[in-house]
Design brief:
CATH class: Alpha Beta
Order of helices and strands: EHEHEHEHH
Largest sheet: 4 strands, parallel
Strand order of the largest sheet: 2-1-3-4
Radius of gyration: 13 Å
Number of strands: 4
Enzyme class: transferase
CATH topology: Rossmann fold
Catalytic activity: dihydroxyacetone + phosphoenolpyruvate = dihydroxyacetone phosphate + pyruvate
CATH architecture: 3-Layer(aba) Sandwich
Shape: globular
Number of domains: 1
EC number: 2.7.1.121
Structural class: alpha/beta
Helix content: 40-55%
Keywords: Transferase
Protein name: phosphoenolpyruvate--glycerone phosphotransferase
Distance between the termini: 43 Å
Number of helices: 5
Length: 128
């Protein structure tokens, strides 16, 4: 079964690996790719790692990218542009919670835009 793919982007490879481990506990049939840390293994993000992860995660059903901090967002946006894919989306949600929801919903066969809509409903900012 093809499903929406997931890319985890973190400044730390250990954070990405830990989240991957958590997500694998609840879903084994969704492509989850990691782009943690720099190419040299340090703290930071790598455009090349993100591009490779997008390619590996894309089964044709779309790819959702989740990130931790600001420069990860900038590299993810650039990677989506360079990949030339119209089915890759950067998700504005907390890394752990967003990726968890995205993975579970992809695992039950939800379509790309339905998953995005569901995540957006979960993370609405309310000013009281």
């Amino acid at each position: 079964m093809s499903a929406v793919g997931i890319v985890l982007i973190s400044h730390s490879d250990k954070i990405a690996e830990g989240l991957y481990e958590l997500l694998r506990q609840v879903e084994q049939n969704v492509a989850i790719e990691l782009a943690g840390g720099t190419d040299e293994g340090g703290i930071g993000t790598s455009l090349d790692k993100i591009l490779q992860a997008i390619e590996k995660a894309d089964s044709g059903e779309g790819v959702l990218l989740f990130y931790d901090l600001g420069s990860a967002k900038m590299n993810a946006e650039l990677a989506i542009e360079l990949a030339g894919k119209d089915n890759a989306y950067l998700v504005e949600a907390p890394l752990i919670e967003g990726a968890y929801i995205g993975t579970v919903e992809a695992g039950i066969g939800k379509r790309l835009h339905d998953i995005i809509e569901g995540i957006q409903k979960q993370f609405t900012v309310i000013n009281e």
